[in-house]
Amino acid sequence: MRKIPIIIVCLIAITVSQAQSIHDRLDEKVKHLMADGQMKHAIMGLHVVNSKTGRLVYDLNGQVGLAPASTQKIFTAIAALDTLGSHYRYKTPIGFSGQIQGDTLNGNLVVVGYGDPTLGSWRYPNTKMQQVLQSIISAVAAAGIHTINGDIVLDDSKFSYQPVPGGWPWADVGNYYGSGTWALNWNENQYDVILNPGETEGDLVSIASTKPSLLPTLSNLVTTGPRGSGDNTNIYMAPYATSGLVEGAAPAGEKNFVVSGSIPYPADVLGKAVFDNLVAAGIKVKGHVVTGYQLFVNRRPMPSFSSSLLSIRSPSLDSLVYWFLQKSINFYGETFARTIAFENIGIGSTQEGVDIIRNYWQAKGIEKSSLKMVDGSGLSPQNRVTAAAEVAALQYAKTAGWYSNFYTALPTYNGTKMKSGTIGGVKAYAGYQNAADGNQYTFSIIINNYDGSVENVIQKMYGVLDVLK
């Protein structure tokens, strides 16, 4: 019996020794990185715990608020899975006001949005644009309607008509990754600009088309860049704008070169698509496309929705979170924040949604002052969170029934399951590392204000995280 305490003491000693070894090796790597020229004016936060025990392994500035970029998405994703439920599905009801008499609808066809970010998305088998449009046409035809003696009404009143969070840079808003979110979204509120550069640097570039087609005018200031130079364009267009511009350079010799922007008002594009497809199917529409925003600014009431034709449902939330984290889709993060607000207070507002998310995390033990969020995605450079808060959120996720789906949704970089974050002067990672000795570590590493190329910083950050393997 005397041998048992000795064995326990030995095991504890080995565990402590291993922990100290990890700490010391991390410390050596951290000091080397902080002495690097790229870090002369930078600040780094690093917080590491043992995933199984929660014991602190290493901390450097873990309680300092830093701009997290897209690693902030873990707070939104976890809060959405926990409060909405992993099986939550968005709905988009389609119905009508008035009455059907014979083959004529004496009323309006009404599409009601509740924020579905997948409506018209190419990422899922049943959400693609033409499939959605065909389901609407089929429902109208199945009801025996051959003539609509009214308007096509796009009711997007469930979310605030201010679609973009405060603090987003103007240079981001017109591009696909800076899309706003409304109660009615379409094709992830993204459109493609198809460019035809010249054969020689400096040649003019023509715009072949936009897909889906846009109502605003897009001025073209793009020139031809060197061959193989990639996408160096930027699109400037505000929400609800009737015009915008694209400038920069596209690589020489690459025909049908695609750059992507954010649709300034998706209800316009969706409404036109529904109208055109109805007409193409032989269904007459005597009215016009009328949007919620149009009614709102003119102080006109929203037409009633008296009878339903169908309700389109999104894939489950855990499927959406997969793409949200895998592809770092800012648009999904903003939609989740607004959806959380809608489900709590009845209107999808970014500010309200973010406040609810912060309160949610405060209830989980994370100080509100360590989580200064202004959006749901991390795109704003005004966000400030701590590395310790990110680790605490990741540790909480491990206790949830949906954890396996969340873990699967995290991308893999350098052999590690972790969410990355990148904005100007910011690089960050947060996730889990399974070590060769059987331990698992939960970590967050955030660098702000580094100098030089992000590619070099990434490799140096990997050198630190490799210690955990």
Written description of the protein model:
The protein is of the alpha+beta class and 469 residues long. It has 3 domains: 21-86 and 319-468, DD-peptidase/beta-lactamase superfamily (Beta-lactamase, 3-Layer(aba) Sandwich), CATH 3.40.710; 91-161 and 266-315, D-Ala-D-Ala carboxypeptidase C, peptidase S13 (D-tyrosyl-trna(Tyr) Deacylase, Chain: A, 3-Layer(bba) Sandwich), CATH 3.50.80; 171-262, no CATH class. It is 32% helix and 26% strand. The chain is built from 12 helices and 23 strands. The chain has helices at 3-34, 73-83, 129-142, 170-173, 266-280, 292-297, 317-326, 330-345, 350-363, 387-397, 403-409, 454-465; strands at 43-50, 56-60, 91-96, 99-101, 104-106, 109-112, 147-148, 152-155, 190-196, 206-211, 217-225, 232-236, 243-251, 257-262, 284-285, 289-291, 307-313, 371-372, 384-385, 412-413, 416-423, 426-434, 440-448. It has a 6-stranded antiparallel beta sheet, with helices on both faces. Strand 12 and strand 13 (243-251) form a beta hairpin. Helix 2 (73-83) packs antiparallel against helix 7. The longest helix has 32 residues, at 3-34. Residues 8-17 have low confidence and may be disordered.
| Distance N to C terminus | 36 Å
Strand order of the largest sheet: 2-1-23-22-21-20
CATH class wording of the largest domain: Alpha Beta
Task: Report Rg.
Answer: 26 Å
Poorly predicted regions: 8-17
Helix proportion of residues, in percent?
25-40%
Strand content: 25-35%
Oligomeric composition of the shown chains:
single chain
Mean pLDDT: 95
Characterize the overall form: globular
Helix/strand/pairing category: alpha+beta
- DSSP summary, beta strand count: 23
